Amino acid sequence: MGRVLILAGSDSGGGAGIQADIKAVTMMGGYAATALTAITVQNTLGVHGVHPLPLDLIAAQARAVLDDIGTDAVKTGMLGSVEVVETVAALLDQAQAPAVVDPVMVAKGGRPCCPMRRSRR
């Protein structure tokens, strides 16, 4: 396993999201680089808040990794909106690497991860 770019939400409790992905990649001997899509407020009792990050910030994080470190694979997690999915799809095209798409839409406790927004196009 080589370099893995992970695009996902952050779990402040550490049991899911980008934190869990980093642990999994590291345990398999890979190098985990990340681009956050959202910050959550959660613990073992549930998700108490979700704060999506701006699209340009998501893209800038990923491009910084791709332009310098590169990637051998991409893994997605919580994307949360049509606009984020479209942004990440464009980044996948740029990465030109195999991808594992893990469409996280609902937290373990049943709460939606992000309110779905429709594109205004």
Task: Give your account of this protein's structure.
The chain is an alpha/beta fold and 121 residues long. It has one domain (3-101): 3-Layer(aba) Sandwich (UDP-N-acetylmuramoyl-L-alanine:D-glutamate ligase). The protein is 32% helix and 29% strand. It is built from three helices and five strands. It has helices at residues 17-27, 55-68, 82-95; strands spanning 3-10, 31-43, 46-52, 73-76, 99-101. Strands 3-2-1-4-5 form a five-stranded mixed beta sheet. α2 packs parallel to α3 (82-95). The longest helix has 14 residues, at 55-68. The chain is globular.
Tell me the layout of helices and strands:
Layout: E1 3-10, H1 17-27, E2 31-43, E3 46-52, H2 55-68, E4 73-76, H3 82-95, E5 99-101
Parallel strand pairs: 1-2, 1-4, 4-5
Antiparallel strand pairs: 2-3
Helix pairs in contact: 2-3
Integer-rounded radius of gyration: 14 Å
The geometry reads as globular
The CATH architecture name reads 3-Layer(aba) Sandwich
Q: How are the strands of the largest sheet arranged? A: 3-2-1-4-5
Strand-residue proportion: 25-35%
CATH fold category name: UDP-N-acetylmuramoyl-L-alanine:D-glutamate ligase
Number-wise, the strands total 5
Q: Report mean pLDDT, rounded to a whole number.
A: 88
Distance between the termini: 39 Å
H/E series: EHEEHEHE
The residue ranges in which pLDDT falls below 50 over 5 or more consecutive positions are 116-121
* Tally of domains: 1
Q: Percent range for helical residues? A: 25-40%
At the fourth CATH level, what is the homologous superfamily?
Answer: Ribokinase
Biggest beta sheet summary? 5 strands, mixed
Secondary structure class reads alpha/beta
Count the helices. How many?
Answer: 3
CATH C-level class: Alpha Beta
